Amino acid sequence: MIKFATVGTGWITESFIQAAKLSEQYQLVGVYSRNEENARKFANQYNASNYFTDLEEMAKNEEIQAVYIASPNSLHFEQTLTFLKNKKHVICEKPIFSNTAELEKAYQTAEENGVYLFEAIRNIHTPNFKILKEKLHLAGDLRSAILPYMKYSSRYDLFLKGEEPNIFSSLYSGGALVDLGVYPLYLAVCLFGEPMKVSYHPVVLRSGVDGSGTLLLNYKGFVCTILCSKIVDSMIPCEIHGEKGTFVLEDAAPISEIKFHDTHTKESKILSVDQEEQNMVYECMNIADIIETNNHEEYEQLKDWSSIVLRITEEARKQNHIVFKAD
């Protein structure tokens, strides 16, 4: 049983707490908020024995073994270092950091202190992702892929009124690609590997970040097109096209349904299985297993995928002069 604490009191933190409880591998022992009243209420709501308004005090608490961080993106790095230096495992919500320099420093700090650092990215831990990866060969030689993840954000309404919510702010390392685009990008990296070339074509907002964009990943023999947006909606499914068949995914996250269409027989079949409605449970379970069994091989694979994804988003931003304050 991993005794963990949380940073952040939003809906994503609530989802992680619920998933951790469902996994039966974690025990919530602490929560953090800058606001004492919010921290106290959140602790009472989820039966946490401690609440904190000071990160350093929380990091020094000997009962805590791991910390889940779901604060604004630009705060991830410094908060993560605080916990790693106090020998706490860290599970940091995607996007893990603002740039690769932060990632390299954090991995080094984790290694020096004998703890693990994970990026929380739910879709690649699900049973259906594992099925997709195992069955990908059925498509034969790949010739194209289109992986959209486009969801209109209610916070864009505030942006249009002249405000600047965190997710649309360069100060807080926001934007469509790092917030939503990482889901299909992770699929591409985990399924196809690191691309030979990256090209990003964004809609840049007045705040200097991307509200929407098209990311092209060049692989040998095919191009993967990723569509991401927080300012429009899309009903397009994900598709992976091969000479022998096509995979159709209902969504990039949590991959609720996978259909395979055979090019030659013209037959289609469902390959997916039913998953837990609280689909974050799978990343909770995998991370707990790595920690408890010291599965260094799987940990190194996750590190490699996180590094590739962050290199791509950083390159995409550089191409379009999208600069975060953290840079």
UniProtKB/TrEMBL annotation:
<dbReference type="InterPro" id="IPR055170">
    <property type="entry name" value="GFO_IDH_MocA-like_dom"/>
</dbReference>
<dbReference type="InterPro" id="IPR000683">
    <property type="entry name" value="Gfo/Idh/MocA-like_OxRdtase_N"/>
</dbReference>
<feature type="domain" description="Gfo/Idh/MocA-like oxidoreductase N-terminal">
    <location>
        <begin position="2"/>
        <end position="118"/>
    </location>
</feature>
<feature type="domain" description="GFO/IDH/MocA-like oxidoreductase">
    <location>
        <begin position="168"/>
        <end position="247"/>
    </location>
</feature>
<dbReference type="Pfam" id="PF01408">
    <property type="entry name" value="GFO_IDH_MocA"/>
</dbReference>
<dbReference type="GO" id="GO:0000166">
    <property type="term" value="F:nucleotide binding"/>
</dbReference>
<dbReference type="InterPro" id="IPR036291">
    <property type="entry name" value="NAD(P)-bd_dom_sf"/>
</dbReference>
<protein>
    <submittedName>
        <fullName>Putative dehydrogenase</fullName>
    </submittedName>
</protein>
<dbReference type="Pfam" id="PF22725">
    <property type="entry name" value="GFO_IDH_MocA_C3"/>
</dbReference>
